[in-house]
Each structure stands twice: as structure tokens, then as C-alpha cells.
Amino acid sequence: MRNNYSGLQIAIHWLVFLLVIVTYCAMEFRGFAPRDWRSSFNIVHVSCGITILILMVARLLIRLKSPTPPIVPKPSPALTGLAHLGHLIIYLLFIALPILGVLMMYNRGGNWIAFGLPMPHAAEANFDLVDTLKAYHETLAMLGYYVIALHALAALAHHYFFKDNTLLRMMPKKRV
After folding, report:
1. What is the 3 state secondary structure string of the chain?
2. Are the C-beta atoms of residues 67 and 24 closer than 8 Å to each other?
3. Cβ(86)–Cβ(53) under 8 Å?
4. Cα 43 to Cα 16: distance, rounded to the nearest angstrom
5. Are 48 and 26 in contact (CB under 8 A)?
6. 162 vs 72: CA distance, rounded Å
7. Rounded CA Rg of the chain
8. Where in this chain does the record put each Cytochrome b561 bacterial/Ni-hydrogenase domain (predicted)?
9. Are 165 and 125 in contact (CB under 8 A)?
């Protein structure tokens, strides 16, 4: 059994990490941009969100087919259970967020763009549904900040406090 994740799993992990940063920044900083640039921020946000959805589903499928490399030294069952719960929350969050976002954009009933392409939309807007989806999307996005922070803190705790290989399993290999 391998000591770390496959190169593909590592690449997807860090690509999703970068896309999450860009996605969050597109929304957080759009208010500082000139008004005529804001639609570009929205396109970036939506395009990155859809890409995150595709990559998270791919990552989940790969994870279901590939064994997880062992943590050495082996953590307690309680820590293992918390890790599984944390990863479940991450997968659910970063699959649900883009789905909610796409459903929200679709149900607005107007033209919207992702990846520079026009996307399908409902023939008639359903603003009550859009408002509900937007509330869930924004709440989960805010929760995402805490989930990301806990995930990063857990990885650092494993590395510096528990002194196991959890963090190293997801780091790119050094080329010699």
C-alpha cells in the first residue's frame, strides 16, 4: 500500500484549494471593483464553482475506488472518526454549494454565463425559489470558512502535535 495519495488525488486536492480561494475572493472583492467589472467577477465565481463541483465529484469517485494511505502512527479511533466526519462535511459542502449556485442562476430565468458560454435558464423566473437557494448558498458559503479553517488546523495539528504523516500524504512529491 502507498504511503501517500496518488498524484491525481494530490493535484485535484490542491487545484480545488486554489479554486476555492478564487471563488471566495471573486465574491468578497467584487464590491471593490468598478461596477462594469462586477459581471466578470460573477462569471469567475460561477465558473470556478462549477469546476469545483466537477473536481469534487471526480475526487469522491477516485477516493471510493482507491484505498486511503495509512496514517503512521495510527491515530485513535476517536480521531479517525472525527477525520471521516470532517471529510464527509467537506465533500457535502463543496458539492452542495455549486449545485445550489447553479440552481439559483438557472431559476433566475435570465441569461447567465459560465466559462464564457451562455448557460441554459428557466423560461420563467422563480424569485421565491431563487431567494431560498441564495440564502442556503450564502449560509453554506459562510460555514465553508469555518470548515476550511478546521481542516487546515487539523492537518497542522497532525503534523506538529500528533507528529504523524497525515499532512505529508497530501503533499506533492519532491522530484530528484
Report:
1. CCCCCCHHHHHHHHHHHHHHHHHHHHHHHHHHCCHHHHHHHHHHHHHHHHHHHHHHHHHHHHHHHCCCCCCCCCCCHHHHHHHHHHHHHHHHHHHHHHHHHHHHHHHCCCCCEECCEECCCCCCCCHHHHHHHHHHHHHHHHHHHHHHHHHHHHHHHHHHCCCCCCCHHHCCCCCC
2. no
3. no
4. 17
5. yes
6. 10
7. 19
8. 5-172
9. no
176 residues of the chain, pLDDT tens digit each: 688 999 999 999 999 999 999 999 999 999 999 999 999 999 999 999 999 999 999 999 999 999 899 999 999 999 999 999 999 999 999 999 999 999 999 999 999 999 999 999 999 999 999 999 999 999 999 999 999 999 999 999 999 999 999 999 999 986 55
Q: What is the identity of the amino acid at 126? A: N
List, in order, residues 6 or more apart from 172 with CB less than 8 Å away: 7, 10, 14
| Residue type, position 82, single letter | L
| CA distances, 18 to each of 2, 15, 92, 133 (Å) | 25, 5, 18, 25
